[in-house]
Amino acid sequence: MSGANGAMSKPPARTSGKLSAEAKITLFNHGIYQFGTALSAILVNLYLWRLTNDLWINGAFNFIMLCAAPLSSIVIGKIAKQKDRLFAYRAGIFSTALFYLLIVIAQERMVDFYIFFAVLKGVSNSLYWLGHFTMITDVTDDANRHRYLGVNLMITNAAMLAGPAAAGVINDLAGGMAGYTYVYALAFLMFAYASVNSLKMKPKATHHKTYYLKYAFALMRKRPDFTRSLWGWFLFGLPQGVLAYIPAILLFQAVPKESFVNYMNVLFLSVTIVSGYWLARKGRSEKNGAYLTYSAWGFIAGAALLFFGVNVWTVVAFMILFSFVKPLQNNAYTAHYYKLSGELPLKAHFRVEAVVLREVFTNAGRAAGVVALMVTNLYAEGEALTWVLSAVAILQLFIARLASPMTAERAEGRKVKGGVVSNEQA
Question: I need a labelling partner for 268 at 20 to 30 A (CA). Which of 12, 245, 367, 425 fits?
């Protein structure tokens, strides 16, 4: 419920821990979206690699996509604020459907237009995730947000579990490059269905349409805890940029079958589902700091395995560990950020802007991860993945510190030797 609406009519109180009907609709629609994504996301990078056998093309594709996303978020955020968050949500699903339809049409000529496809994918991702993340604050509160995020994670990963499994079967049956075309066609149909299904969501009119992103720097200066939370998203995105495409290519080089890569992804997602299920049942907001620390050490342990050699066994072991600890980090930091965003001076009126800033910093981190791998590969070919992942794994430890209330107190000058003083006294 938007802040403007709340001023006109008080929203009905939610029962603590229970999910509203609208929350359940968003979970179902998101499951459909994620199934379509899981069908084809890994294969896009494999498709480019098979057409070019050039990791630089893959790196450039992902880098351009990740640069297009935050830049478009800034413009899209204003449109979403002045119209409705459903505009961005629906446009994101529609443009993703268009992306896969154009791949089906272009087929092997996709490599000639990979810059265009990268930009289109970045913009469509930005549209969808801006709408999705904004709606989370509409349909949840502090009491049920961990439950929503846990259930969302299970549904997401169940859809993403079925997606690669279906893609593996299709590739086995079709064989060769034709399998890619069938998968992309099915992905297009899934996103087309999701576009229609999104019409079930009702727009929420707001009379508060001012776009406050221009005040972001002033707000960041006034609230250093909010600034730290944004840098946390940058660190959060670093490993995601690398892991978006490199593991799949390494696995394909070890066992040159697309179905093998898809079935391995099923394994990794199964581990994530187990972790997400535990978090949905046992997760508590007061343990967010511990979850962030545990996840960072799990990531470090997984990266350490790669020093024994980058091969199919160490990559699989690393991905299993990463898949298990990632939900702890994701849910804990997302819950922390939503709570912090709700405490900002503008509260609900800054909701869209907070999501835009999150996406800008996260995608900047992802792009930095891609660049770090590409540059390191020039000097440490064959060992670049190990060194880059080890470095970003260690950096994940700082996310827990950035989210720590004690860190916030020290940064704001409230704590001094011998007692507590006000900001003005400090």
Answer: 367
